[in-house]
Amino acid sequence: VEGPAVSAVAALPSISLRLYRPSDADAFAQFRRDPTSTALAFGSVQVPQPAEVVQQMADGLMARGDLIWMWVDDADTPVGFSLLTSVDWLNRTLATGSGVFSTAQRGRGLGTLGRRLALDHVFNEMGFRRAYGEFAAYNEASRRSHAKLGVEVVGARRQVFHVSGAYYDAIVYMVRRERFNELFPPDPNRYLGRRA
Amino acid sequence: MSTSIAGGPASSLSAADQAGLERALVTLRPPMTTYLAACGWALPSGAAAAASALLEEPRAAFVAGHPERPVAGALERHLMPAMGSLLVLAAAGAEASAIDDVVDRLTELAFHELGLPRCEWRFLAGWDHLRAAAARAGFVEEARLDQACFFAGGYDDLVVAGILAGEWRARR
Asked: What confidence score (pLDDT) does residue A41 get?
């Protein structure tokens, strides 16, 4: 596991998290129109869907307790997202998925920063203990990004993804809160209106 | 004691079979709250409602074993990705043959009747009786989710086990 990508993070414009809202459906619809983006993020290629259909899907996800968080820049423009599924409030675990909307903004550390923001909030503000997730075996960029966040690979679900006639494994990973906070110690005073 | 098995999709189930599933859930469900949450099997409260939820398309359920030591199992069919998820709840002291019967019926339903390419089963690492049953049925342990479930006073890992259609057919 590599250390934190502090220099890459610091060089990026600041982004923050906010909840999904219906006006974000356009950004998702555009993302889902690119087959490479959906193959990388979801392990399947989907027929392009209008924003109205994306909105229905978002409503369905949120109705079952999933959380959709947007990564937005200073102008509140969505640049990426975290999808938190299998939210288990009893055992304090969940599964994460994420993506950067613009192909031009990939490979620069933006995904790592967005995932880090989401995990920090999940672990240190919501009290979750473990975050699990998976990426397609062919998604090397995701593998590298997750390695910077203290991720441990814990197995592979065989032949879960199906792209262009071939099956691929889903690499299963896990992030422990303790390990994440070793790499990115939270400032306990950050939201208390006082200095550390 | 030999086991009998009853169940299937709701359309093939008699009222007596459904009552048997409800009785099994009365015994099996209360200690399994955290496990069901960890596996994502959200069931409504009440045995009748929970039994109905396990039998509602795209799910099917079976029950086997001695009435005091029942084994209940369910299969949920997923479309994307195409696969089946197994749930097996076994009472303490349940016979291995009853567990095997339920798992056999669930995998047969998944692969022979529904044509799914893959089945998955998640259980606690400390449940030796289910780990052994999974191995007997040909499941391969594919991943292990660290401390995913609080059970009986402490956290336990969740084993993700899988079997592919070709592997299941090769064992027939």
From this structure: 87
Q: Which of B43, B147, B157, B163 to mutate to test the interface with A (most CBs of A within 10 A)?
A: B147
Sort out which chain B residues have CB atoms less than 8 A from A176's CB and list them: 146
Confidence category of residue B11, pLDDT binned at 50, 70, 90 = low
Q: Which of A85, A88, A135, A176 to mutate to test the interface with B (most CBs of B within 10 A)?
A: A88
**B141 vs A contacts (CB less than 8 Å):** 155
Residue B148 reports pLDDT greater than 70: yes
Who contacts B130 (Cβ-Cβ below 8 Å, separation ≥6)? B88, B90, B99, B123, B124
Closest CA–CA distance from residue A35 to any residue of chain B (Å): 16
Closest CA to B32 of B68, B83, B67, B71: B71
Element containing residue B169 per DSSP (H, E):
helix B165-171
Reference A91, options B152, B151, B87, B90; nearest CA is: B151
Q: Cβ of A91 and B160 within 8 Å?
A: no
Question: How far B42 CA lies from chain A's nearest CA (Å)?
Answer: 10
* B40/chain A closest Cα distance in angstroms: 6
The string of pLDDT tens digits covering residues A52-103 is 999 999 999 999 999 999 999 999 999 999 999 999 999 999 999 999 998 8
Q: What is the ipTM of this complex?
A: 0.90
Q: How far is CA A41 from CA A123, B37, B72, in A?
A: 23, 25, 36
Give the integer Cα–Cα distance in Å for B11 and B62.
Answer: 13
> pTM here?
0.90
Q: Which residues of A touch B34 (CB under 8 A)?
A: 90-91
CB B7 within 8 A of CB B25: no
pLDDT in tens, B85-100: 999 999 888 999 999 9
pLDDT (0 to 100) of residue B30: 83
Using CA coordinates, name the residue in chain A closest to B122.
A157
